[in-house]
Amino acid sequence: MIKRLGAEFIGTFWLVLGGCGSAVLAANFGGDGNPLGIGLLGVSLAFGLTVLTGAYAFGHISGAHFNPAVSFGLWAGGRFPTRDLLPYIVAQVLGGLFAGFILWQIASGSAAFAPDPAAAGNFASNGFGPLSPGGYTVAAAFLCEVVMTAMFLVVIMGATHSRAPAGFAPIAIGLALTLIHLISIPVTNTSVNPARSTGVALFAGSGALSQLWLFWLAPILGGLLGGFLYKALGPERPDVVGDN
To answer: Which family does it belong to (predicted)?
Structure first.
């Protein structure tokens, strides 16, 4: 169990550092119109790449959840034991917080770093209403996070099914997360992962912290929905991560 929790900690750290780091450090590098900035497309791809590389690195150790919503979804789908839920979630949140801390230390090394707690997407945080990049309402943000997380779980469970092509699951999962970000960055700055949201919200200020509840509730509901939905599509009994 210690090795699996360590893998979840490092994997979540990598996801938050890579994904949120691309948003904070590289998305608008040099200002608007600068070709060196990676923009929305680059940030979306960065999140996908962190999951893809992390899954190949740690999937054989912990299952590469890196996300409390994924752990809940796999539990709902019959792929993950109840006894491991809380330890996994603690490890994921701690990994996200450590990534937020490291990212803050790096970003603070630039004189141009000027975080604004009232700004949408401050320090790669998630939000709705005035803290949504596109000004979307709480209802729109909630629906978006539920649906995107549910579909993420459907892809995860399908790609890791015992009958799926072996060795390709991380590619499908990484591309799915990239697509999710391409769709939903304007709405919520894309969470679908409570550990990712918590990891930067602690440093982003009171605005992000006050809205953090949505980015726990909606992704977990979406994860449960996706897990139950995929399980209902047909009988299966793949190996359960955590039984060893």
So the answer is: Belongs to the MIP/aquaporin (TC 1.A.8) family.
Helix (H) or strand (E) holding 179: helix 169-188
Rounded to whole angstroms, how far apart are CA atoms 238 and 163?
A: 9
Give the pLDDT confidence score for residue 28 in this predicted structure: 84
165 secondary structure, DSSP code: P
What are 192's two structure tokens? Answer: 């679908």
In a domain, 244, yes or no: no
In a domain, 154, yes or no: yes
Which domain range does residue 101 map to?
2-109+118-233
Total domains, the chain: 1
Does residue 238 form part of some domain? Answer: no
Q: Indicate whether 36 belongs to any domain.
A: yes
Residue showing tokens 């602690």: 202
| Dmax (CA) of the chain | 57
38 token code pair: 């990676």
Convert the pLDDT of each residue in 183-196 to its tens digit: 999 999 999 999 99
